[in-house]
């Protein structure tokens, strides 16, 4: 019996030291990147906290990456400044997941690495000792993060019945192999969201991949079938599609905003296409459970793609499962805009479907190695979105090259993993760990719970926070400290403790809880 107890302790404590720490490379004026090469890559093991204990994981500007500590709840000396109090009985949205995007560019960069590095990149994102991503977004055909402009069934021209819809070289050489690698590694089903940037040019009014365009009316049903054909094509390659969106950033093609693949939609026509074509096509097929996500555009457009659309075409509500939102106007548009949907249509979900840093013309440095500011921008945005009942958050390219590409339209941006093909290594940016504090610790099915702040002092709050009850019967709390090192209290029921928050850091706390 003693022998077994001893074994239990050994097997319980051993994983604490099994994490491989970040191989840190300090970047001048920035934080660190963690370097993965063919013989070394850091990982993170999620502990199972025992009753009466909690586990703390911290990443910080000073260079901590998932630093792990185990502590006990105490009734000792508490801070008098700030107490965060949890109320697990008051619950909000249920989480669908977190992830990143398999674009042509991401898959090309991934493929440029040695096989052993390809594996550790996928492990880093999807593995049990990685971030445990459980969602992916992928373009249907080409996007700006491709090396050429293309779509499915470009030829024959005006082929309304899509007789030539088949795999592209990008699917065969890059994207499908990357998906297969992901699905071999992921321990939970990966929910894939597929999106068209532009259909073949013959379906469009301007006969061009970019610029001002709309769908020619005679191809409304063809464009619906185009989505069904894609779902069939990827499903037969072993890649199930969980959702489709109703076209990437439809505003771009109306305002001719972006120099890359787009298709413009007016709200009225979009509603009509969903009700008359896309909705019935999907729901009357064997893929009827594939979710239909409308919007897939900036936060500023939420009232158009949802409330205005369903006012014009209420029938669209029968087909729409949720709304997708992109990141790029978040700093200028208050999140309260989400309440126009969440309060009026609580049965529809909102999912963040695209985000990256470095996309604005005034951001002259597209990739900034080691940028903590960009990690912080991700963290604060995710906290804000989740606090407004969004059900998940999908990042853009899973990896890019040192320049932030490749990209046929020279639209370079940053990514949580930067691939250095020449040195055969990849660099995990601070943004990678920012994603990890959410993706790894908030599994699908987690429910957000209420947390209130009680101030005992005069310090203004530079604390941003969120809490979830997870399907593993634990509570997780994420706290961003946007200031100097400080102590706060955490309380749930009779249990309370003092928590030390590092300067400029994100802290995840996890402990067992029975509702
Ligand atoms: C790989 O990284 C490890 C840890 O930083 C280092 O010790 C090793 O020398 C590197 N190997 C190569 C081939 O660069
Ligand atoms: C089918 O598409 C391929 C790839 O674009 C093209 O090479 C081929 O000519 C097309 N077939 C027909 C019959 O148009
Ligand atoms: C397509 O539109 C872009 C501008 O968005 C323009 O530069 C390009 O010349 C056009 N191509 C064709 C074939 O018309
Ligand atoms: C600057 C740069 O790398 N541009 C690339 C963008 O993508 C196109 C298509 O792959 C390349 O030809 C350019 O070199």
UniProtKB/TrEMBL annotation:
Keywords assigned by UniProt, alphabetized: Glycosidase, Hydrolase, Lipid metabolism, Signal, Sphingolipid metabolism
GO molecular function per UniProt: glucosylceramidase activity; hexosyltransferase activity; signaling receptor binding
Domain Glycosyl hydrolase family 30 TIM-barrel residue range list: 95-442
Single Gene Ontology BP annotation: regulation of TOR signaling
Any GO CC annotation of this UniProt entry: lysosome
Residues annotated as signal peptide: 1-18
Family annotation (InterPro entries): GH (IPR017853), GH30_C (IPR033452), Glyco_hydro_30 (IPR001139), Glyco_hydro_30_TIM-barrel (IPR033453)
All residue ranges annotated as the Glycosyl hydrolase family 30 beta sandwich domain in the record: 445-509
Substrates-to-products reaction catalysed: a beta-D-glucosyl-(1<->1')-N-acylsphing-4-enine + H2O = an N-acylsphing-4-enine + D-glucose
Domain of life: Eukaryota
Enzyme nomenclature, EC number: 3.2.1.45
Entry's family note: Belongs to the glycosyl hydrolase 30 family.
Name under which the protein is recorded: Glucosylceramidase
UniProt lineage: Eukaryota, Metazoa, Ecdysozoa, Arthropoda, Hexapoda
Designated gene of the protein: LOC112049945
